[in-house]
Design a protein that fits this description.
The protein has helices spanning 2-9, 11-16, 24-44, 51-60, 67-98, 100-116, 123-127, 130-142, 176-180, 220-237, and strands at residues 149-152, 157-158, 165-166, 171-174, 238-242, 267-271. The protein has 273 residues and is mainly alpha-helical. α6 crosses α10 (220-237).
């Protein structure tokens, strides 16, 4: 946590102290893989429709992009789109195990969608499952992958009716988990209630599972698609039940940047076919 605190709040000092959130051997291995991949693609004129290819095109178009920047951007995309996906999938399955009626309804939607698409899912079909979207949205509300977001104030802001002003350049911490669990915005916030997101056009303005604005999480769409596909595949083939091995209620570990439970989560899976 000290390294995380330093790199977020005092990045220049952390750099001088050689503090990093990534273990040196991991950083070295990842850098080698990206460098070799870029060199291979450029040497053999390999074109792929992926994020790395966009960065290579940007570099070759005359824009000043260094190899370190390419490595950094791909690493950010990699971490943003994987850990958050795994956590959200786990917590959605946990909630579905506790809510069998919602699970049955969601399974009906999944099976129906597969049948309408010859047992194959296009991107449009995957994103068109409304109840699945509601389940994920509510999970992200109750269990946001990132519990707190650091931001920098872009202009002076004075709170109406007070003498309090946040000056431009001030670092502000946004307590996403606290906002998502605030009963003023979400009645009965501890309850996993899919009806909250039945009308996606009327989402609460206080909903930031992946941040917002120009600093919105770069891996959001990728992560969301992964979660949808993973849940659809699992629910089509398995029924999910609670396990007595899971200690309840769940306790969030306060010493992690990404949301994590203090205890392990166990689930029972019963194959359908």
């Amino acid at each position: 946590m000290i390294r995380l605190f330093m790199t977020i709040n005092f990045p220049k000092l952390a750099e001088k102290l050689k503090m990093s959130n990534v273990q040196p051997e991991v950083s070295k291995q990842y850098s080698r893989i990206i460098k070799e991949t870029v060199e291979y693609r450029e040497k053999n004129n390999v074109v792929r429709k992926d994020f790395l290819d966009l960065l290579i095109q940007l570099k070759n178009s005359g824009v000043q992009v260094t190899m370190d920047e390419i490595i950094g951007q791909t690493f950010s995309f990699f971490t943003a789109g994987f850990e958050t996906s795994a956590t959200t999938t786990t917590m959605t399955l946990f909630e579905l195990a506790e809510n069998q009626e919602a699970q049955d309804r969601l399974r009906e939607e999944v099976i129906s969608t597969f049948e309408k698409n010859d047992n194959d899912l296009s991107y449009e079909a995957l994103m068109g499952m409304k109840y699945l979207g509601q389940a994920i949205d509510e999970t992200l509300r109750k269990w946001p992958p990132v519990t707190t977001l650091p931001r920098i104030c872009m202009q002076d802001y004075k709170f109406p009716g007070t003498d309090l002003t946040i000056e431009k350049g001030t670092k502000v911490m946004i307590p996403i988990l606290a906002l998502h669990r605030d009963k003023d915005y979400y009645p009965d916030p501890e309850k996993w209630n899919l009806d909250r997101f039945e009308d996606r056009n009327q989402k609460s303005s206080v909903y930031y599972p992946f941040g917002g604005g120009p600093r919105h999480c770069i891996g959001f769409r990728y992560a969301f698609m992964q979660v949808r596909l993973g849940l659809a595949t699992i629910l089509r083939n398995y029924k999910v039940f609670p396990s007595p091995s899971t200690e309840k209620p769940l306790d969030i570990d306060p010493d992690t940047f990404l949301i994590k439970m203090k205890q392990r989560i166990y689930l029972k899976f019963q194959k359908i076919h």
